[in-house]
Each structure stands twice: as structure tokens, then as C-alpha cells.
Amino acid sequence: MKTMTSKASLAAAAMLAAAWLASPVSAQTQTPPAAAQSAAQPVPAGPAPAVTAPAAPAPSASTATAPAAPTASPAATVSTTAKPDAAAAVAPAMKELSPWVMFMSADVIVKAVMIGLAFASLMTWTVFIAKSIELSVASTKLRSALKKISETRSLAEAQMALGSKEGILPSFLAAALREARMSAGLSSDAGIKERAASSFSEIVRAEARRIRIGMGVLATIGSTSPFVGLFGTVWGIMNSFIGISKSQTTNLAVVAPGIAEALLATAIGLVAAIPAVIIYNHFSRVTKGYLELVSRASGTAGRLLSRDLDRSHGSVHSRAAE
Fold first, then answer.
1. Interval 234-243: pLDDT, tens
2. H-type helices in the chain, by residue range?
3. I need a surface site. Which of 200, 201, 225, 230 has the fewest CB within 10 A?
4. Alpha-carbon distance 61 to 51, whole Å?
């Protein structure tokens, strides 16, 4: 009887040991569905089931954290797909910022400023080409004329050497001959020379005014173009800020085109002003050199007149002596 009881107790102990050893395996195989179900549906609060095995919580904790990663991945994919959608929504607002596109997108006032500055720049280069040709031709003609009469002895001989050409030097010679003819019979040579010098100075002033035509345009463009461009920039930036207040956004894609269009006006103003200032200074030097040649021509005509007067008085004195 005792042997049967001991055998029964040994069998019961073996069954308990087998049950205890099998409990971790069953926990590992049954926990993931339960964890997935608990992630999908909230588990109502209640008393926790009694677990007699002490080693079971460790495997369940490790296995319960494993499915948690897949549950968070859909949110990550949603966030990553949301970013391209936002970029795609912003992308249509961006546009090509070429000068022509910025000009066509600018305000009417800014467009008018840009057109005016472009016209001023065109005038600057037109004046540059025209004055360069004019000063070059005038200087070449005057040097050639001075060379032709460098060996002449009288006003009449100088006129014959020059022929019927028009220019500043023939004008000096004509004025000297006219004054000598109108002062015929007067014995004061100083008065004749003074009146001839007055006529020469009038011719020099007229030539200086003629040769400086267009210089005032260059000075005006060079001094006012930056301020006109700045006015267009200020107007464009004002419109940009008004657009920002209406759209209630400070996104760079919305703000940048308006500011770029405004700054284009300042750029065009500088493009018009800088060449105008440089060309004005260049022509100031060239004009000064040409007016020195005109002064030389005036002095040459005055010397020829003085020789004619002295020659005429010498012939009168010789006739009187005879």
C-alpha cells in the first residue's frame, strides 16, 4: 500500500515538473497574438490572472516588446509620405527667377521704372557712340587744318590753303578778315586786335557749347538712375509685404519672387548709372583736349591778323617815305 502511494506521489511530482517546464514554451507561442490583440483593442482593467511560474514574466516581456515595433511603423510611413505631399504642395509656388520672368511678374510701377532705366541706358550708349565719332572727326579736322596753315604768312594765304572747307579754323580766319575789313582806315592796331579777340572768344564759347551737347544727359542719368531704381525697389518691397500680410505666410517661396523683382529695379538703375558716370568723365577729358586745340586755332588766327596789320602799316610807311 505504501509503495502504491509513493508511486502515485512520484507520478504527481513528475507531472508538475513537466507542466512547469512546458509553461515557458506555451507562453512564447501564445503571447504574440495576445500582444497584437492588445495593441489593436484596449484591454479592460481587471485582476491579473494568477501565474504560478516565476520565470514566465521574463519571456512574456521580451516577446511583448517585439511586436510593438511593427505597430509604430505605419505612423512612420504616414509621416514620411506626408513630407513629399507637403513638398509637392509648395513646389507649384516656386517659379523660375530669370530677369525676364521677374520683369513680367513685377508691378506696373516697377515695370515703368525698369523701362525708363533701360531707355536711359540706351541713351547713354547712343550719346557715347555719337560723341565719340563727333569728337574724333572734329579733332582730326582741326589738327589737319592747323598743319596746313602752319607755314602761311597771311590770312588770305591761310584761307587759300584751307579752301572752302567748313570748320572752326576757317571761322577764325573769316572773323579776322571781317574785322580787318571793317576797321579799314583806322590807325589803332590795338583796337582791331581787341575786337578780333572778342570775336574769337565768342566763337570758342559757341564751339564749347556745341561740343558739350549730350554731356548734360550723361550727368543727369549718372546722378539720378540709382535713386530711380531705389524707388522701384522700395515700391516692389512694399507690394511684397502687402502680399505677405494677405497670404498670412512667410514662406520663402512666396516672399522671394517679389523681393527679387524689386531688387531687379535697383540692378537696372546701377547698370544705367555706372556707364553714364564713366562715359561723362571720359568725355570731359576728351572735350578739354579738343578745346585746347580750338584755343591754338584762335591764337594762330590772331597771329596772322597781327602780321597782316604790321605788313599793311609797313607798306603805308614805305609809301609815305617815297
1. 988 888 888 7
2. 2-40, 57-65, 68-90, 99-105, 108-148, 155-162, 168-182, 189-211, 215-247, 252-321
3. 201
4. 14
Euclidean distance between CA atoms 308 and 253, whole angstroms: 83
> Which cell numbers in the block locate residue 217?
544727359
- Please give the DSSP secondary-structure letter assigned to residue 42: P
pLDDT tens digits, one per residue of 294-319? 999 999 999 999 888 888 765 544 44
* Top mean-pLDDT range of 73-87, 199-213, 232-246: 199-213
Question: What is the rounded CA–CA span in Å between residue 263 and residue 271?
Answer: 13
Question: What is the grid cell recorded at 67?
Answer: 511586436
Burial 110-136, CB ≥16 within 10 A → b, else e: bbebbebbeebbebbeebbeebeeebe
98 phi and psi, to 5 degrees? Answer: -85, 160
